Amino acid sequence: MKRLMGVINLDAEQDLLGELTYFRCGAAVPFGGRYRLIDFVLSNMVHAQISEIAVFTRRKYRSLMDHLGNGKAWDLDHVKGGLFILPPDWNDPTDISKGELQHFHNNRDFFARGQADHVLITGSQHVSTVDFEEVFTQHLNTNADVTVVYQHNEKMVTDTPFSKKLTIDKTGHVRDLTNDQKNPNYYMNMYIIKKDLLLELVDSCIARGKSFLFEEGIIPRADKLKIGSYAYNGYLAVIDSLSAYYQQSMKLLSDQHFEELFLSKKPLMTKIKNEPPTVYKRGSNATNSLIANGCVIEGKVSNSILFRGVKVERGAVIENSVIMQRCVIKKGTVLKNVVLDKDITLTPNKTLIGADKQPYVVAKRKVI
Questions:
Q1: Is 104 in the same domain as 166?
Q2: How many CB atoms lie within 10 A of CB 78?
Q3: Mean of the per-residue pLDDT values for the chain?
């Protein structure tokens, strides 16, 4: 879509997933058996034919860069446009910008060279199947300066104070951004804005010592700008805490949630890894679980998610757990309500048990 370019802004996102973000940013955290959190919003952008996409990242981005590469897995390895990973490498001694505005200021060339006249800005913590083509069509048809994506959800509960709610008037225009937990209009950290207006607001915010574009540049001008709203009513998982990560992972074992995320829209794209099918050896038992390719199952697995290359030896038991790539669970070991990061080896006859809503988490590359 030549009129729309994309920005996945990770700079303002907090590393809220404990051990899972010790060595990586939140966008690179594995989710759903074979994906990373960034795959969902990136795939949604590609399906909307957005061919110029920048990723603003500031810290712990090595794993993210390894995953994204040159964007080939998302068909973004173009001669013109494509995927741009833009870490903080700035050498302008006159730069006075702060916070996320540093990215917009110091990567101004990305916007200047882009052919699009509108910009889609998102984060990575909202796993969804938003149709950005539909959002953009509404944005153009209503001639809005900004169109904000939200979900009206009376039941949504989040574990952190970082969740934001939108105050929307009867005409569908956004008037304010609040932390009011009783407000059901959940802001999904996604909006489309006219490119010229974006650059104007960036300059204005920097001149006034501001740090955040949406909260300090757009919302305070709600009485002057036409800020429209797009009500999204599809699948939404907010990954803003370890508890939320675990609970949303477990929900994928439900046929309804699995189909809503993976089967209701266009295919989800991720980095391709060629591995053999999973082997279930005689005496193994696997029920109600998502098990990726390359695993070897000799023990018992139930109500769990296993990523690629996990080995479960005979006599081992895994229940209600998330086991990431290349973990080895030795014989006699019991895991319940556990999240294991990548490359962990559990020696024989160990027992790890977490709570139903607060799993026991082990950071990657450990031997226990």
A1: yes
A2: 12
A3: 93
